[in-house]
Amino acid sequence: MTIATTFPRNPTASPTPVDVRAERMVDPGFGRVFTDHMAIAHYNAADGWHDLAIAPRQPLTVDPACAVLHYAQEIFEGLKAYRTADGGTALFRPEANARRFMASARRLAMPELPEELFVESCRALVRSEIDWIPDCDGGALYLRPFMIASEAFLGVKPSSDYIYMVLASSVGAYFKGGPKAVTIWASENYTRAAPGGTGAAKCGGNYAASLAAQAEAITKGCDQVVFLDAVERRYIEELGGMNVFFVFDDGSIATPPLSDTILAGITRDSLIALARDRGIAVREERYSLDQWRADAASGRLTEAFACGTAAVVTPIGAVKATSGDFTIGSGGPGQTSTALRAALVALQTGSAPDPHGWLDKL
């Protein structure tokens, strides 16, 4: 079967007025300012992927028996389009998001969206909504591809029908004035994912499972939560939505190894490559909470940071836990995390050479 990959544009009859759009993009924050259009495609076993379009963004009408509402067959991605230094526009590593989306679909027993269809849906939406990329500090167009099970059926089985969509949202810098060091709550009661589960898939259920621990973190005066492994309750895995790195006094970096309980972050992978480009030794190894505390106390650990698409790099200044609190280095952003963040942002915006071919220029 030949798969169509063209997304015809069906423009909205009520576009946002130019002055209103400009006002919204002055300080868009994150995830609250949406563009006028979205990409959409449908799937069923008989027709495969069909009815591709760039269509007006509007509410969905679904049956109360829609499978996603009952059995949570849902996956999503997150990536950004940037204005580049040469005046153009580029996506950052969309093919990597496409491959992860396919892996998530396999784990959730959903149809795999072909890589070329995923990438073209993002390209077509960015071309349609290019005027929504803000010029503010850290401005970008955040894309949210997602797929839901849409069959109206209450039996427990994979759905026969699916809807794929991509939303676009104007965003600014996640942290005004630059990244600030956060305080992390190390959850010793809740776990995010168990071996054999869906921890390596980017599905909504994993994030729902993190919310109680995140709420607990807030009550403890912390900004984010970091999870331990579900088997021994000893080893650091990841934050609710970010991977984590550790920087040592010999200049080396470590990060937990990927497994079926840790999401393979694209920012994580990019930072590993950029660090190695700079001659920094990077290890992927297990690291316990007790060792983290001891290394922070001895000075062997000089920095820690989390990373993800939204905030890029987030320095970790302190950790709180039932078993004891500790401060990392000076408690503020460190030199290594600051340098790696600057290098990644420069590459994403076309201000630095792109030796890995990560920019997908439109």
TrEMBL record:
GO molecular function list: L-isoleucine-2-oxoglutarate transaminase activity; L-leucine-2-oxoglutarate transaminase activity; L-valine-2-oxoglutarate transaminase activity
InterPro entries cross-referenced by the UniProt entry: Aminotrans_IV, Aminotrans_IV_CS, Aminotransferase-like, B_amino_transII, BCAT-like_C, BCAT-like_N, BCAT_family
Entry-linked Pfam families: Aminotran_4 (PF01063)
EC code: 2.6.1.42
SUPFAM superfamilies associated with the record: D-aminoacid aminotransferase-like PLP-dependent enzymes (SSF56752)
Reported cofactor(s): pyridoxal 5'-phosphate
Gene3D superfamilies for the chain: 3.30.470.10, D-amino Acid Aminotransferase, subunit A, domain 2 (3.20.10.10)
PANTHER family recorded: BRANCHED-CHAIN-AMINO-ACID AMINOTRANSFERASE, SUBGROUP IIII AMINOTRANSFERASE
General function of this protein: Acts on leucine, isoleucine and valine.
Protein name: Branched-chain-amino-acid aminotransferase
